[in-house]
Amino acid sequence: MCCSTAAPTSPSPSSRSRRPAPGTRSSTPEFPDERLRAAAVDAGIGLLVTDADRAAAGRVDGPWETVVCAPDELAELPGENLGTAPTGDDVACVMFTSGSTGRPKGILSSHRNLVSTVSGQSYGRFGAGEVFLQCSPVSWDAFSLEFWGALLHGGTTVLQPGQRPEPVLIDALSRRHGVTMLQLSASLFNFLVDEHPGAFDTVTVAFTGGEAASPAHVRKLQRLKPGIEVVNGYGPAESMGFTTTHALDDGDAEETVVPDRNARWSTRAPTSWTGT
């Protein structure tokens, strides 16, 4: 389910004198109706787009226009430029925190935020020959790296069916499509290293984050696949991905705590953040 919003991130001079370009809010259909509705209201959406199979139109009622479109109808829609002319400060999307410490909070991310996350960075490899696997829920900030990290550089994104990471599917899709960049939570990284090491057969850069990385599993993967680059990263949803990252070498893997100490370009990491 994809919702559009037209709220600017900040009242810049350009946004005061014109109508801001619309942004989007992607929601996970498996979420309870109450959470979907609350996110739609908080994001101030004006348009709800869903497909017939999801039937979100009946689940999320509100003062917005609803469009139901089946996947096979997308090719029939007009493809001309909408002429919205967004600027870097306009909202690209609205991400919500997990809500683990209370009510989920909406975070406005501008086009500049998204582009800077995957442009001019040294923590990964971006280019036309890279293949990313999108296995994170579309409503999470990790989605931005898996999706836009490939498409903004002419690469390929492989979409995993469903809205939660499935280890068996990740293994199969990674091998079938030659995935080169694989982003995983630390616990999922550990599980794949133990139970599905073939998922890393073609991977050149593997990301682990969200929780404390396991030195034992990093060492194990480095032994199984010499030359693979393992990157430990940390960042709140506000950073649209990683705020600090660290490429792990054999010496780091011998440590009892895996560092994530290097701030990515165009991001200032407060010294009070210790990472995971």
Major β-sheet strand ordering:
9-10-11-12-13
Which regions contain 5 or more consecutive residues with pLDDT less than 50? 1-20, 263-276
Distance between the termini: 31 Å
Biggest β-sheet description: 5 strands, mixed
The helix fraction, in percent, is 10-25%
Q: What is the succession of H and E elements?
A: EHEHEEEEHEHEHEHEHEEHE
- The proportion of residues in beta strands is 15-25%
The gross shape turns out to be globular
Helix run count: 8
How would you explain this protein's 3D organization?
- With 276 residues, this protein is α/β, with parallel strands linked by helices.
- Helices cover 25% and strands 21% of the residues.
- The chain contains 8 helices and 13 strands.
- Strands 9-10-11-12-13 form a 5-stranded mixed sheet.
- Strand 9, helix 6 and strand 10 form a beta-alpha-beta unit.
- Helix 6 packs across helix 7.
- The radius of gyration is 19 Å and the shape is globular.
- The N terminus and C terminus are likely disordered.
